[in-house]
């Protein structure tokens, strides 16, 4: 079986239900999710230490679920399909986030990507995930999109943020604080400001 088909040489590609330009908003959305999945694989490759067994297992699940998200977006609006991305997937992310945050140290300032190579890789996942979310929002202007994909991506970027901090903690690496900013995580506003950083 040949890998190349030559059918895309003219700048078009196939989606379920027809053909579109390769710069179509639908292709851009699921293509960015594919890009994110590549970074997830890279992050997992940096988490081979036994201390990261839970994170590796979670990222393996995320990789499968991102493929589900991309699959849901690969249909033209006219094509009928059962969606693969569902609310339970987002709810599981929330459980993982809560567990990670229960072990993470309190935040004092906004943080920058870095601290350790695994944490830096997970922050890249976080930012690419946010871009994928923006691409899906753009796609919603053109037709029906599974709303659970948006919910999943929104929560997934929060997961990457918490996972990055957990990775630094396990490696005894300090989070990189944004020192030019004020101390924003104090008192009852801690959780609200933490959400603002990743929103």
From TrEMBL:
EC number: 2.5.1.17
Cobalamin adenosyltransferase-like domain: residues covered: 3-166
The keyword ATP-binding belongs to this UniProt entry's keyword annotation: yes
Enzymatic reactions: 2 cob(II)yrinate a,c diamide + reduced [electron-transfer flavoprotein] + 2 ATP = 2 adenosylcob(III)yrinate a,c-diamide + 2 triphosphate + oxidized [electron-transfer flavoprotein] + 3 H(+); 2 cob(II)alamin + reduced [electron-transfer flavoprotein] + 2 ATP = 2 adenosylcob(III)alamin + 2 triphosphate + oxidized [electron-transfer flavoprotein] + 3 H(+)
Top-level taxon of the source organism: Bacteria
Pathway stated in the Swiss-Prot or TrEMBL entry: Cofactor biosynthesis; adenosylcobalamin biosynthesis; adenosylcobalamin from cob(II)yrinate a,c-diamide: step 2/7
InterPro entries, sorted: CblAdoTrfase-like (IPR016030), CblAdoTrfase-like_sf (IPR036451), PduO-typ (IPR029499)
Keyword presence, NAD: no
Keywords from the named record: ATP-binding, Cobalamin biosynthesis, Nucleotide-binding, Transferase
Similarity section: Belongs to the Cob(I)alamin adenosyltransferase family.
Protein name: Corrinoid adenosyltransferase
Native organism: Saccharibacillus kuerlensis
Gene transcribed to yield this protein: yvqK
